[in-house]
Amino acid sequence: MTDRVKTPGRSPGGGDARPEARPLKVRLKKARSLSSSSQKWLQRQLNDPYVARAKREGWRSRAAFKLLEIDDRLKLLKPGARVVDLGAAPGGWSQIAAQRVKSEQGQGRVVAIDLLEMEPIAGVDFAQLDFLQESAPAQLISMLGGPADMVMSDMAANTTGHRPTDHLRIVGLVELAIDFARQVLAPGGSFIAKVFQGGTEGALLADLKRDFATVRHIKPQASRADSAELYVVATGFRGHRPGNPDVAEAADAAD
Length: 255
Fold this sequence. Notes:
CATH class of the largest domain: Alpha Beta
Low-confidence stretches: 5-15
Oligomer: single chain
Strand order of the largest sheet: 1-7-8-6-5-2-3-4
Number of helices: 8
Distance between the termini: 39 Å
């Protein structure tokens, strides 16, 4: 079952996260050199109110509003928490996490990782690496100073245009992210990742329910209405971690 976020998120400053209505539609000019698909994408970007608001408020991407909505509802990002952002570039989710986990005592850590370079963000430690590397879980725990309280991923696999194939690719990527989360999460931790509707969501939820107390699908209002995009949110990690001596050593060293 998919939950639609009904209450709009609030920006850190307390403003309504919903974009203002834009009465005039921006039309492309001199776009003949672009392919049809590129023209459609650019037209959509120019007329997307979340894109415009993200630029005004200094968010790295419109995706920031999706995490804002989800976290306003579920309160996943707690002050003092340790957070890993997989596939973080350009950094919209890392920005939100850094603001929300910062405590008055200066605690709270956010580590962002990506294959691509990312411009620095205040309060975020960045590592340019592949989270699939065998050494990645231990490295992330060391950077965090202990096991993570939350692993989040807004990653999406490169698309082919063939919807069934693209669905299998994103599910495969999420499964890899789940395996990573199982290695680095502390008991009680949470996991959030982007998926797409396509017929295998039930199997993914069943897999997560073996290790998490609560699992659900959510579609934020900031997700485009015509998109098959969903977010899977798993909370209450039961603490099962595969035997990886490097991970265990990193966790013991952090403690």
